[in-house]
Amino acid sequence: MSRKKIIISLAIATIVLGLLYIFNPADTMLAPKCAFHAVTGLSCPGCGMQRFLHAFMHGHFAEAFHYNYLLVILLPYLTLLGIEELLLTGKTKERWKRVIEGRTLVITMIILAPSWFVIRNIFNI
């Protein structure tokens, strides 16, 4: 990834997280709503992500996890992917890549998302 793309990506992420910190998605009409939920009435694997991030950034961890349990696993994984892509180089990057993007971990993540979709809709979580 080029340096320019990294800077733009980080700037966009900072702006989005800043807005999520300031505005509670549960209380504002400006926050985008889940189109899948609006059409089907079902919660997608990502439903609750904005509320999760807002609560998490304010230190309300139990409340955050209540919004979307999958993010407890997914956020650290995505953070590690970001570190690998943006910060690491050379052999260290290759070692991280073998683990983080390894077949077992990727398959696990692929299984988790649809499983969470089914579980959260059956048990109304």
Molecular structure report:
The chain is mainly α. Helix content is 71%, strand content 0%. The protein is built from seven helices and no strands. The protein has helices at 3-22, 35-40, 49-57, 61-67, 71-86, 90-100, 103-122. Helix 1 (3-22) crosses helix 3 (49-57), helix 3 runs antiparallel to helix 4 and helix 5 runs antiparallel to helix 6 (90-100). The radius of gyration is 16 Å and the shape is globular. The chain starts with a helix and ends with a helix.
For the CA atoms, what is the radius of gyration?
Answer: 16 Å
Percentage of residues in DSSP E strands: under 5%
Helix and strand content put the structural class at mainly alpha
Low-confidence stretches: none
Major sheet attributes: none
Number of helices, counting only DSSP H or I runs of 4 residues or more = 7
Order of SSEs, N→C? HHHHHHH
Task: Tell me the helix content.
Answer: over 70%
Shape estimate: globular
Distance between the termini: 38 Å
Average pLDDT level: 91
Beta strand count = 0
Secondary-structure map with pairings?
Blueprint: H1 3-22, H2 35-40, H3 49-57, H4 61-67, H5 71-86, H6 90-100, H7 103-122
Short description:
The chain is an all-alpha fold and 125 residues long. Helices cover 71% and strands 0% of the residues.
